[in-house]
Each structure stands twice: as structure tokens, then as C-alpha cells.
Amino acid sequence: MRVLIADDHDLLRDTLVMFLQSQSDIETSSAADFSEACKRIESDDPYDLILLDLNMPGMNGLDGLKTAMTLKGGQRVALLSGSASRDIVEKALEAGAAGFVPKTLPAKSMINAVKFMAMGEQYAPIDFMTATEETPSHPLADKLTPRELQVLKGLTEGKSNKEIARDLDITEPTVKLHMKTLYRKLDASNRTQAALIAREAGLF
């Protein structure tokens, strides 16, 4: 079984290689960034599984995952991360990733996960996928609808109505309507004041 591990943290990468090499049936190669990983995929003999760190240089999030999956006629690629959200993981699995391996996984579980994915199965830790993310209630956020919160977030990022409309896939007049409601609910007279109120309240 051949596995490629691509991660920019030397210690973690070397530790993973050591874990996997301790299994007599696993042969590993490694890369320090996305571009090196792509070169290895293209030039080496086929791998049974490729583990890509979500945040390493050149990866560009899920774009890197999708690119790697198309190389050399199609590859089994899994994400490796210590900070991925459940939303990212779900999108990766929907895109056809072989799975998701948290960096916090114990060595034995990681070896089992790698073997599982290399054999063609899809893997993600059940406790990670079913964990409930508790978002603390915020008095200001409680006043607003989810869409109003999205518009307000765009405001705090200094985006124009046009940019907010494009990001949320709604029309500019709809953004303006949400702004009016926002100003009233926040007791703000303009977009700058609304953004300041949100920032001072620690909403974003």
C-alpha cells in the first residue's frame, strides 16, 4: 500500500511517516507543500491514498483537494487538518474526497483510517461529524435574522452593496431593504455606524 503525506509542518509530517512506516504493508512518501505533492503524484508510481494538509502553502482550501483528485487519471485524496470545520469536511466528502483525518487522531486510529480509505472506503470520525457546535447567544444577534447577520458581516468587512449582493446571491435592492431593517434594529443612522456597533459588540 502506497501513501503520500503532504504537510508543511516537518515534525508532524515526519511523525506521520514514522507511524505509517511502522506497518510492514505501508510504503510512504512525503511532500512539504501542494506543488511538490502534485509533482510527486504526476511522476511517482500510483498511490493508494494521498493525505493533503488543508492549510499548507499552495493548497487554496478545497480547490487543491479537487485538483489533486483529477491528477494522473483520478486519485484517492483525503484531507488532513487540525482546524477544519464540519462544513468544510462535509463539502470535501461531497466533492468525492476519500475522507478526513483530524491531526488529533491517535496513532492507531490514524493507521486504521488510512488503511480504510486506501481500500476504497470513505472515512470521517463519527464524533467529529456529530459534535454540536455551540454558538453562544448574543443579545444583538438575537435581534437579527440570519440574512441580516450576513449583510451586517459584509458591512463590517467594508464591502459595497454590490459585493454583498454578489456574495449572498441576492439583488442589490434586497440588500438595501435588509440595510434599512438593520439600521432600525441597531439604532444606527448609516452603514459605518452599523459596522461600528457590530464590531464594538464583538459580533464579528
From TrEMBL:
One of its GO terms (molecular function) is DNA binding. Signal peptide: none annotated. Pfam families: GerE, Response_reg. One of its GO terms (biological process) is phosphorelay signal transduction system. InterPro entries: CheY-like_superfamily, EvgA-like, NreC/VraR/RcsB-like_REC, Sig_transdc_resp-reg_C-effctor, Sig_transdc_resp-reg_receiver, Tscrpt_reg_LuxR_C, WH-like_DNA-bd_sf. The keyword Transferase does not apply. The modification 4-aspartylphosphate is found at residue 53. SUPFAM superfamilies: C-terminal effector domain of the bipartite response regulators, CheY-like. Residues 137-202 form the HTH luxR-type domain. SMART domains: HTH_LUXR (SM00421), REC (SM00448). The lineage of its organism: Bacteria, Pseudomonadati, Pseudomonadota, Alphaproteobacteria, Rhodobacterales. Residues 2-118 form the Response regulatory domain. Keywords: DNA-binding, Phosphoprotein. This is Chemotaxis protein CheY. PROSITE patterns: HTH_LUXR_2, RESPONSE_REGULATORY. Gene3D superfamilies: 3.40.50.2300, Winged helix-like DNA-binding domain superfamily/Winged helix DNA-binding domain (1.10.10.10).
